[in-house]
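Please review the protein record below. Tell me whether the encoded fold seems credible here:
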Amino acid sequence: KELETCAGLRNQAAHGDFGPLSHERAGLMEQQTSILLRRLEELPPLASRLTILVRRETARVLREAEAEETRLRTEFEARARNSLAIVARDLPSRVDNAAKDAAQREPDVARELGAARIKDLRRELTAVAEVLASEVETAFDQIEWPRPMSRTFSEVTPRDIHAALLKFFNGPRADKVTAILQHHGFSRRRVLPEDFYDEKDFGAVAEALTSLSIAEHALAAAKAADDRATVDSLWSDE
């Protein structure tokens, strides 16, 4: 619109429509017109440069998000593996405690077995417990660790880690211990996965997994923003 006005004034001045000062005013309008034209010519490059700057910024944010996600993933894995090592270390003594609890519930059975057969029972349980310990210590990739992004809770809790370990131990693994107890006459005590660990020990793992999940969400958002900026840059003039 300004260009049209400037052009009109210039034409009017050229025909003497503005009196003795019309040519001076026309020159001024010509100068203003030239300035506006230069500004308009610069707009596409400026827009392109802005697109490039946005692309660089999204790429930087993406790199930082990737680094943070990698750091937190490493931290979570270290804590999780350490937690599994602790479960493995304590598992034989916990199985032995479960056997003692079974004997206390059925003291007559324990009395009938006697000291020698109780020792045999404990040796069998220790052998099975050591196998279970070796399995859980290397089970990081087998355990279905809870993921907030696929569930409705906002953070991971020790109870969620307990649920993952319960799923790992439940069934044949825990049943092996129960079967030995029943074989020796103890029928009232069924060994459960929670006999093998303490839920309160999973706080550090839950915290690390929550942080990792937040970082994963941030990485996904950064990747989406960078993808959009990449496409925009491909459609720019430069």
